[in-house]
Structures are given as C-alpha cells and as structure tokens.
Amino acid sequence: EADIYQTPRYLVIGTGKKITLECSQTMGHDKMYWYQQDPGMELHLIHYSYGVNSTEKGDLSSESTVSRIRTEHFPLTLESARPSHTSQYLCASREKGIKGNSPLHFGNGTRLTVT
Amino acid sequence: RKEVEQDPGPFNVPEGATVAFNCTYSNSASQSFFWYRQDCRKEPKLLMSVYSSGNEDGRFTAQLNRASQYISLLIRDSKLSDSATYLCVVNPDPYNQGGKLIFGQGTELSVKP
User: Fold this and answer.
1) CB atoms within 10 A of CB B19
2) Which residues of B touch A33 (CB under 8 A)?
3) Centroid of chain to Cα A86
4) Chain A residue with minimal CA distance to B32?
5) How many interchain CB pairs under 8 A, A with B?
6) Residue B10, preceding bond cis, omega within 30 degrees?
7) Which of A40, A80, B31, B37 sits in a 20 to 30 Å window from B63, CA-based?
8) CB of A89 less than 8 A from some CB of B
9) Residue B58: partners with Cβ closer than 8 Å, 6 or more residues away
C-alpha cells in the first residue's frame, strides 16, 4: 500500500485567500506530481518535480506554485484563491524505476471549493 | 491528435459480460504503460502494468501492440464492482529522464445486474 498523504481532505475558502495544499510521501520517491481534475473530467498535470529543488510546470496553465525542499514533501500554494480554482487536486509520486516503468501512487486528494 | 486516446464511453454491460477497452498512443518510443481504475470522486488506483508479452491478473488481461501503438484491457466475467472509469497511462520517455506520464481521458464502465 502506497504511503502518500494529502491534507486537507476538503477545503472551503473565500476568494482572495492564500492556501497551501499539503502532500507528503514516506516512500522516498524522487518524482512527485500535482494533478487537477474536475468531476467526470480528465486529469491535468499542473506541476511536477524530479527531486529536491527541482520543479516544472505541467501541461495545464496554473496560477499555483510548488516547492520541493525535502524529498518527502511537495506542497502546492495558491496566493489568491478564485472560484475558478474550485476542483479536486491530486498529488502523486513514483520512484525512478527502470526505463520509467514504475507506476504512480496517488494520495486521496484535496477537494477545494472557493466561494 | 492527442498523445493518448481511449475508447469513448460509457460502456454499459450486463454482469458476466466480457468487455474490452483500447487505448492508442502517438509516441512510438513510449516504453511503459499502465491501466488505472478510478471510482467516482476518488483517486486513481493502479490496476495493472502492461508488459510487452501481455499479462493477466485474474479476470483482467492487458495486451500491448507496439506495431499498431495501442494497449488493451480485457475484463472477463464482469462484476458490479468493476463499474468505474478506466484510465490508460503512458510513459513517453524511453530514457526515464523525464517525469511526465500521459493520461488518457478515461473510459467509463457501468456493469448492470
């Protein structure tokens, strides 16, 4: 069983607030990811990291930022939340593997609602 | 053309039916492939990796066809609990230098009594 944790599980917050979504994994995985998914829709990669001090933007333009100061921790921050940020945010990690054949392990997600 | 495309759903099948999903990928250098299952409002969970020679796990069989650039998932004797969205995932990087995995849009399966 994968050990990757996201908090909070649910968050309802007003427009303009700064929020940080937490993601931690205890498996020592070097690669970590943030995905955004609206109900019934595709997953969209918004950020990823190859390892400590390495972060990249994903395919979906996002107003969020991430940091990777420690291997196990990959928080996502929204400086000023807007209703358009309402969505589910999924964190995932995987080990380097051989020829990239290691699968993704997902946290159980943060469901964000911005009012 | 999308990098990874799946059969559009939903698939509505009776219990006990056999159902197959296909997923095509555009990058011929892709090396690793996975099927994930996602229940409504939950996170995706790994169903199985797809190996070059094909592989089976109970009622589930995954196949890879490199020549035609597609993978498939076969579910035999489908159960009500198989109802979910099935996601095809491809690693397009043959050297494992990058980190991005590409997700298909998902195929929804609904198994009816």
Assistant:
1) 17
2) 99, 101
3) 14
4) A101
5) 62
6) yes
7) A40
8) no
9) none
